[in-house]
Amino acid sequence: MRRVRLGSLRSLGEWFSGDGPGPSLRGIIRGNTTPLAGLGVFTAGAVKIYHWAGPATFAIEGVCPQYRHPEMPPNMMIRYLSFKNIEVVRRIGEAEIGYTLMGFNAAMMASNIATDNQEDLDYLKKFASQVQGVGFLLLIVGNSVRDFDYKKRSLEQIMSETGALSLKDVDDPVMGAGFLWRFIRITGSIRETSRATGWGGGTVGGSDVFPLMTRYILHTSNLKQKLIDDGLIMDDFIHPFIQSIEHGHTGHGEILIRYNPAGPDHIQKVQGMLSREANKTAIEGRFGVPHHVWSDALHDMYGPHVMNYHKLLRKIKKNFDPNQASEASNYITAKDE
Questions:
Q1: Residue 227 has what pLDDT?
Q2: Which residue, among 261, 231, 266, has the nearest Cα to 120 in the 3D structure?
Q3: Helices and strands: H and E segment counts in the chain
Q4: Distances in whole angstroms, Cα of residue 254 to Cα of each of 105, 182, 214, 316, 327
Q5: Is 328 helix (H, G, I), strand (E, B) or coil?
Q6: What percent of the chain has pLDDT over 70?
Q7: Mean pLDDT along residues 213-234
Q8: Are 222 and 229 contacting, i.e. CB atoms less than 8 angstroms apart?
Q9: Interval 292-331: pLDDT, tens
Q10: How far is CA 53 from CA 46, 59, 327, in A?
Q11: Distance from C-alpha of 246 to C-alpha of 96, rounded to nearest angstrom
């Protein structure tokens, strides 16, 4: 058993940083992508709890996915913003007015509320006609009436200066309250990745500086368009998107695919093509190591291009799990180099 103390638990009242140059304990435990149980099992932990200014309970009605709330709770608002100028994402991050910003697109919004595949496609066409390309779902929570008013007016100014548009269906208090409930509970992400028509893709960029991630995601849009033109995937009217993390200092991007219902062999073919192209682009373009780099094969692919980090990762594995008791196929094994 290894006992690890880090962060403020090791602070002596002076300035400290959770991470330093090179590997850190926090990085070993959590990292950009967690070890996925590849270092063992955590038996205890402590977390910092942030203030929640919203209501203690929600008076929710209806059945999944059509949860309804009679009205939007006080000092809270939810918007779906679409844009042509990606600066709006950075501006909102820098203003620190968002409680949460999630890079959904119109197709994901449709899947979030649809009860069957046909309704999903109907919502998609409706939403796609109201947006200007990519977008994101934004939740604002005020700690007081004045704080909420300030954040709301800040958002209005940013939208005015960047040309961002708000999706009218989400502005509706009843539908917006339903999105709010699903958004807070993360059931929205569960539904938009589990439609019967099939969603695929995933993170193709990982976390990096915001401009770098933007260039990567824009590059992948050309690949997606080629697959659409070749009839391998459906046209969902949506381009890959980017969202800001850490107040605009880093970015996260995804390419989402709606498959044609042509059978599992077809889906596997497209997934293999996307995976190969994503890895090739990340390495050759030096876009960073994506979130999806799990397993010996992928770490061995990326490691030589990133200061041989895979060798250090195996040393960490051997030190924390010398008997290789944990199942590490989704992390990295302690095999000899």
A1: 81
A2: 261
A3: 12, 8
A4: 10, 20, 11, 29, 28
A5: coil
A6: 74
A7: 78
A8: no
A9: 788 999 999 999 998 899 999 999 999 888 888 888 888 9
A10: 22, 16, 40
A11: 10
User: Which of 65-69, 87-91, 129-133, 320-324 shows the lowest per-residue confidence on average (mean pLDDT)?
Assistant: 65-69
Give the separation between CA 178 and CA 78, rounded to whole angstroms: 10
Helix (H, G, I), strand (E, B) or coil at 317: helix
* DSSP 3-state percent helix, strand, coil across the chain (nearest 5): 40, 15, 45
Q: How far is CA 336 from the centre of its chain?
A: 34
CA dist 76 and 98 (Å) reads 11
- Alpha-carbon distance of 225 to 88, in angstroms, equals 25
Please compute the mean of the pLDDT values over residues 237-257 and round it to a whole number.
64
21 CB contacts (<8 Å, ≥6 apart)?
Answer: none
Instruction: Give the lowest-confidence range in 8-17, 82-91, 93-102.
Output: 8-17
Residue type, 201: G
Encode burial over 273-298: b for 16+ CB neighbours within 10 A, e otherwise: ebeebbbebbbeeebbbbbbbbbeeb
Report the amino acid identity of residue 3. Answer: R
- 333 in the Ramachandran plot: left (φ > 0), alpha (ψ -120 to 50) or beta? beta
